[in-house]
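Suppose you are handed only these lines of text.
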Amino acid sequence: MPLIAIAQNRRMSDYVESVRRAGGEPIEVGADGESPEHILARVDGIMLTGGGDVDPKLYGEARHATFDPAESGRDAFEIALTKAAVASGIPYFAICRGMQLLNVAMGGSLIQDIPSQVPGALPHAVPEPRFAIAHEVWVSKGSRLSALLADHMEDGETCHVNSRHHQSVQRVANGFDVTATSPDGVIEAMEQPGDGFCVAVQWHPENFWRTGEFRSLFEGLVQAANARTR
Ligand code: MN
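From them, the structure of the protein bound to manganese (II) ion can be written out as follows.
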């Protein structure tokens, strides 16, 4: 069974359950544990999770008034893990903060506060229930994300998602494609094109493990991890 390293956050249970249901064996990794190099030497896939804001100094900006930091040490640990993971080609799946972190680690920037910086923005912070549908996203045809979600989209390109974020990707890191946007233009998914599995979504697919709407995303990660020889 492929070992999937999941970046620690304050609420792990849905991530852990989603990986288990997709056939992976989850292990939690964080700033107080092993180095990224040791982690990459013994796992088959990486999953980055939700949480607080990435420090904007990491993409060269001052802090917006709404800045809500992640746990101490997470930014540095996760950026080191992400850079090493992308360089190694290990299957990598990033969720919410994880997608923002991936973009910053690879040289991109973020919109720091959607409500005050995106005119006409849809509600992207719908807290409860955690699987509540907040808005639709338009998925790019031909993307890996589109293939993974093929059985879940009614018309081949529209998908309804939950949403708990006040930040989003602004300048997309070099080498990445935007693979989903919401109707207000907010970037909702990105991936690295090519044979590797490097996929990121802005919504929270892990909150749907009971009903399985997004199980194919976790299965995609686990299958790619299973196919890779360490
Ligand atoms: Mn959203």
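What can we learn from it? Residues 3-227 form a domain with the Rossmann fold fold (CATH 3.40.50.880). The chain is about 25% helix and 20% strand.
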